[in-house]
Design goal:
The chain has 3 helices and 7 strands. By secondary structure, the protein is of the alpha+beta class. A hairpin with a 6-residue loop joins strand 5 and strand 6. The longest helix has 15 residues.
């Protein structure tokens, strides 16, 4: 009798919830970076253990790279306290599928010199950045003359 109960529990434990993340793009064949790891090309399907926020970045020759933050929210049976019942006590084999579909935009035009200068300035600020990140670069106005600051007068002793 014990072995039958143990076998039933073991059999049911194998039917826990299946979590899937499916990433696709138009056009297909884009290289996928999931968070900080290159995982494959679109269409792509993978399992995941935890809910939360993920960053999906797609790269494809001839198209602009596209990055998107995806929030993977649990279904009602994946929230506390329901998850204890649905995944531990009575695992009935729920299927939780999250799909991300991104449309890539073709690269267009030629990079002009002002664009290149802006990119190089941004790259230099990132290169010199502190561990907390780059300091914001404020745009400078050349049409307004800049006056040096006036000294603050010292208080006169009485």
């Amino acid at each position: 009798m014990r072995s039958a109960v143990f076998g039933l529990v073991f059999l049911l434990a194998g039917c826990a919830a299946r979590r899937e993340l499916v990433i696709d793009s138009v056009p297909q064949g884009a290289l996928i970076r999931l968070d900080d790891t290159v995982v494959g090309t679109t269409p792509f399907q993978t399992g995941f253990e935890a809910y939360g926020t993920r960053r999906v970045t797609l790269y494809l020759d001839g198209y602009r790279s596209q990055s998107q933050t995806v929030e993977i929210k649990p279904p009602w049976y994946g929230r506390f306290p329901f998850d204890i019942v649905s995944e531990v006590l009575l695992p009935v084999g729920w299927r939780d599928r999250h799909e991300v579909k991104m449309e890539l935009v073709p690269e267009g035009g030629v990079v002009t010199m002002p664009d290149l200068d802006l990119v190089l300035k941004r790259a230099e600020s990132l290169r010199l950045a502190e561990p907390t990140g780059p300091r914001p670069v404020l745009p400078t106005r050349t049409d307004v003359p800049i006056e040096p600051p006036k000294p603050i007068p010292k208080p006169q002793p009485e």
